[in-house]
Amino acid sequence: MLKNKSILFDREPLGDGLSNALNKFPQDVLLEVRESGLKGRGGAGFPTGTKWMLASAAIAGKKFVVCNADEGEPGTFKDRVLLDDYSDLVFDGMVIAGFAIGANLGYVYLRGEYSYLLKKLENQLEKMRTENRLGKNILNSGLNFDINIRLGSGAYVCGEETALIESLEGHRGEARNRPPFPVNTGFMGYPTIVNNVETFASIPVIMSRGSEWFNTLGTSKSRGHKLLSISGDCDEAGVYEVPFGITINEVLKLVNAKNTKAVQVGGASGYCVPKWEFDRQISFEDLSTGGSVIIFNESRDMLRVLKNFMEFFVEESCGQCTPCRIGNYKLLEGIEKIEKDECSMTYLKELVELGKSMQIASKCGLGQSSPNAFISIMNNFEDEIFSKTING
Amino acid sequence: MEKDKLDNRAPVAQKPLVYPKVDITEIGALVEVDVNNISFKIPLGTTILEACRLNNIHIPTLCYHEDLCLAGVCRVCVVEVEGMRTLQSACTFPITNRIKVHTTSEKVRKARHHILELLISEHYGECYSCHRNGNCELQKLAKEYGVDSYTFGHVTERRHKIDRSSYSVVRDMDKCILCKRCVRTCIDLQEVGVLEATHRGYDTTISTFLDKPLADVICINCGQCINRCPTAALKANDPSDEIWEAIDNPQKHVVIQTAPSPRAAIGEEFGLGAGHSLTGELNTALKMIGFDKVFDTDFTADLTIMEEGTELLMRLKKKLVDKDESVMLPQFTSCSPGWIKYIEHFYPEYLDYLSSCKSPQQMFGSVIKTFYADESKINPADIVTVAVMPCSAKKFECNRPEMDDSGFKDVDYGLTTRELAQMIREAGLNLPALPKTHFDTPFGDASGAGLIFGATGGVMEAALRTAYELVTGREVPFKNLDIMPCRGFDGVKQASVKLKNVLPAWNFLEGVELKFMIAHGTANAKKVMEALKRGELNDVHFIEIMACPGGCIGGGGQPIPTSPEIRKKRAEAIYSEDAALTLRKSHENPYVKYIYEKFLTDGPCGHKSHKLLHTHYTKRGKYID
Amino acid sequence: MIEIKKNALSDEIETLVEKYGNTRDALLPILQEMQIKHGHISDFSQQEIARMLDVHPVEVYGVTTFYSFLSSVPKGRFIVRLCRTISCDLAGKENIAKAIETELGIKFGDTTLDKKFSLEYINCMGMCDQGPAMLINDRVFTKLTPHKAVDILKKCK
User: Fold this and answer.
1) CA nearest B551: which of B564, B532, B537?
2) With 50 as the cut, is the pLDDT of residue A391 above it?
3) ipTM of the shown complex
4) Does the CA dihedral A332-A335-A341-A343 come out positive or negative?
């Protein structure tokens, strides 16, 4: 359940987005999604309308719709709530996507850790089939579309869209070379759109209440509302719906957090916001996040936090490209050196430079964003960290 | 879904983006691109790397290899593309619109530095104690980028054990840089599937099924992985210490046989480009090193043609005249030990199609320790036979338990081209500058037909030169005896020659269209075997299969690196050497005639030949215990 | 190497291949089902799956070792996975870890001698608002205390 009152997913004013969409032409659905300014809710923030239009324009024998339910970013659990309580919206969103781009089959890639939700989701799909909202000739529109649920098996990297597709194809979850992008060459080589659970859930809402209404929410560059999964040192951890543009201070008030030293926005691959930046906003143009907000109070050791993040990446890296495979390990090694007072300032600077190279040279998003925590914590919490190296 | 299944050989990610070939004069077919502020036009879809190579702009690479599908994992070839935040790997990025590329900007140089330093930090050992010192791609790049310190430290302990279980291939995973070339070679190029990346993240290791030793899985020993490995992670099992011992032992009579492919390629180890055959010079070097006799494997290649040609004609007779249904046609050549192990594992039910002839190397071993031992009055127990081969599988072959028909281990050691070059260097000799000498008697200089065994299609061409003449009394109807349909690097070649106006003894072959096929690389061998399974090859008579792409000139023991261009030049060297000889047909080799007169008196495929020159095979199957 | 005895495992895999298809994209679902049924995917199973899907056994092994939830070696009947990512760490997973190790008598990464429990760490399982959390097979347990965790283990039959 959401901890606060939802405006976006409020069932009261919500009509039937699916039937609305099916009464339009696919082209109009695409335009509506583009007009809404909806951006991917998984963290990358790619304009959904653009993605769908590219896939729609691709010429191929088959197309696929994939729902990325491999929510694995530390501190993210909002998709879990969506799948638990709003799975009908998510699936409707997928059907609408299939209609818009010309796909007949959708996959939900559900992370293995959420397999307890599998039965519930399968039941929901079955219910939709009996209501003619899934399967053949959906709501008499002529659209054939069905959804299969595939489970993940415990790999964070499969949340990356091309690694996810590789996993669906029965390979190791190793990201692909891009270009070509999944909208042209995706699952089995066919045009595929991969979108987050929350993105799909927003689609029937937009179809039902209109893109104009959607544009009244959020900021000019980040339209709509965002689900945040807030955890850490606060009284009211949970999933909240907030407008884009909300400041960190406002978020802290929402969850009744006290004595906050730092807020990690965007999970382990995000940015660590220090106290003096708490007036910054959560939006794609400022502090971007897939939903994860982790709060640290004054008692927390930032080095220990950083170590936890780097251990995470060392284990979850797929291991194919050099900068991520070895780079993450070196960053972790650096932290261990700091802990033992064996790290010089020169070496630390070199590691930050390494992090910057990793951010641009790694093959996929994991390696490109794993140094973020390292760099932001090293920069923003200098005093804490350097007090350990001064002696070294 | 059926089509998808066939296409799934390599992950989609690794297949190069294929743009339909268009006429370059069509609008949109060419794209303009700016690299380092220089503009030029290239066909749509060309990768940045290809575009730069066509225009002499250097971009370093590590995991990229011309023979293999794309990986884009080392990130060494990253370049800056204006407008994109992240660096792009030049080897995988197809150019589809006008982009501005910078190949040596500050970001790029820094990234490359870091990547190399990361690789070196995990690379166990030092260059001076490594067998790839001087020919290592990591070393080359480190020099190019001025790496002069262990910025990120250096690993001091091994994480893996060296796998020496195989006779042919030795794996040292502590030197592996995870470029995945060996994986792409084994799974995609050769379709044998022994190596793959296992585990995840920092623990990722290239390994075999259940991490079993290489000898326990279905490795066919072709050594193609060794040829493409950029570092010392893979090498062949080197017996040169034992050979030196034998040479230094006055009691031992050490004879060496050299194959054409090493001779065509060994110059590469001494600074010459590819394509210089150093046969005569090598003979001198070997004598100077201390080998007692130097023989030409082409002699037994000629012998193979006699034996295998006769075997084929016998099978044809049984099939066409006796209507014997138990006779297996098409007949497959059996001189490639990689191919033999391949068929033993993957198609064990089809072993009867193989010719029962041994490979020239093995034939020589049994002939040396019987015929030669007699002729020169040397105790065969004191003879040590060494074979210089382009092949890593030959090391396994000479250790096969059945290879002892002479009463002793027929061939004691298989030595690769690379290992021989090392011995020559240790002996302080500058190979290209040595004078030429001939091979020793009683085997002498062989025919050009035996020589061309080294290139794919060579065995077939040699066989045809003899078989056709035997049957019709005339030379093959090809200019200069160069049977062009047999030549070239197409994966599977198919051709035929009509037998008309045959000699009376071969009446049953009158009008028969002798159909033959040539395949190289086990992926193509697979295609042929699958076609056989489907019953599509019922009218084909003779098939030559070589396990290595390019044939023996691309073998697992040849100088590193390999590329389509290098293999082409080596093949050209072989064909030119053949064209320059006067003796070009196996059956005209006087030493071959001699051995049949004096020793193998029952003639080809006779009783004596069968004992010494023919062998049997072992059903192995795919199941790994 | 030549002897491949078809047995109950082969039949089981054949049924799975019929259910999911005989192309490579059926690999992961098949491996997952075998993992749940048998606690691991044995040497023989991997080769049979490879044979029926027309992939190389080493590729099946590569996929099996890639994913945390798949295993080539037998594990305990109950696989206990404790979340160690930051939110659960801040909420006190260390104490839970110590309590479980003491209770089971094994360290993280090991399996009890009676093959009943395997103990592992897992990365963020998405229960950050209710940490510390753990998975036992596919059941989620949240808001753990050392006491509660041990209680849950005792109830595993």
Assistant:
1) B564
2) no
3) 0.94
4) positive
CA distance B622 to chain C (A): 6
Q: Indicate yes or no: CB of C25 within 8 angstroms of CB of A153.
A: no
C73 in contact with B at a CB cutoff of 8 Å?
A: no
Q: What Å distances lie between residue B542 and A139, A208, B14, B313, B323, CA to CA? A: 63, 71, 35, 10, 18
Q: What is the mean pLDDT of residues A70-97?
A: 96
Which pLDDT tens digit goes with each residue over B197-244?
A: 999 999 999 999 999 999 999 999 999 999 999 999 999 999 999 999
What confidence tier does A1 reach under pLDDT thresholds 50, 70, 90?
confident
Of B78, B94, B180, the CB nearest to A179: B94
Q: Residue B541 — very low, low, confident or very high, per pLDDT cuts 50/70/90? A: very high
Tell me how far apart the alpha carbons of residues B247 and B233 are, in angstroms, rounded to a whole number.
29
Does the distance separating the beta carbons of C62 and A172 come in below 8 Å?
A: yes
Digit-coded pLDDT (tens) for B439-491: 998 888 889 999 999 999 999 999 999 999 999 999 999 999 999 999 999 99
Q: What is the distance between the alpha carbons of residues A51 and C30, in angstroms, rounded to a whole number?
A: 32
**What's B135's domain CATH number?**
3.30.70.20
Is B3 an 8 Å CB contact of chain A?
no
Of the three residues B378, B406, B433, the one that is the final residue of a domain is: B433
Q: Do C61 and B194 touch (CB under 8 A)?
A: no
Q: Which residue from B1, B187, B200 is facing C23, i.e. has the nearest CB?
A: B1
CB-nearest partner of A229 from C31, C129, C139: C129
What distances in angstroms separate CA A8 from CA A11, A128, A219, B132, one per listed residue?
A: 9, 22, 15, 63
- Topology, domain C8-66: Arc Repressor Mutant, subunit A (1.10.10)
Residue B164 and residue B24 in one domain? no
B125 in reach of chain C (CB within 8 A): no
Instruction: Supply the angle between the helices A382-389 and A365-380 in degrees, to the nearest 10.
Output: 80
B231 and B156 within one domain: yes
Q: Residue A385: which pLDDT band, with cuts at 50, 70 and 90?
A: confident
Give the residue among B132, B229, B227 at the shortest CA–CA distance from B176.
Answer: B229
Chain C touching partners, 3 or more CB pairs below 8 A: A, B
What is the C-alpha separation between B90 and B33, in angstroms, rounded? 13
The pLDDT value given to residue B12: 56
Has residue B286 got a pLDDT over 90? Answer: yes
Given B433, B461, B495, the domain boundary residue is B433
Q: Tell me: do B509 and B599 sit in the same domain.
A: yes
Annotated catalytic residues of B are: 308, 311, 335, 355, 394, 397, 402, 552
Distance from CA of B169 to the nearest CA of A (A): 24
Give the domain ranges of chain C. Answer: 8-66, 78-155
Q: Is the dihedral of CA B405, B410, B414, B420 positive or negative?
A: negative
Q: Which of C58, C67, C69 to mutate to test the interface with B (most CBs of B within 10 A)?
A: C58
| % of chain A beyond a pLDDT of 90 | 95
A189 interface with B at CB cutoff 8 Å: yes
Q: State mean pLDDT over A256-268.
A: 95
- Tens digits of per-residue pLDDT, B19-53? 666 677 777 788 999 999 999 999 988 999 999 99
Amino acid B11: pLDDT: 59
Cross-chain residue pair A368–B12, CB shorter than 8 Å: no
- Residues 10-29, chain B, touching A (beta carbon < 8 A): 11-14, 17
Tally C-beta pairs within 8 A across A and B. Answer: 137
Closest-CA residue in chain B for C1? Answer: B623
Cross-chain Cβ contact C28/A316 below 8 Å: no
Q: What angle do CA C26, C32, C35 make, to 5 degrees?
A: 140
β-bridge pairing A260-265 and A271-274: antiparallel
Domain boundaries C78-155, corresponding CATH code: 3.40.30.10
Domains in chain A (CATH in brackets) are: 17-215 (3.40.50.11540), 225-297 (3.10.20.600), 302-389 (1.20.1440.230)
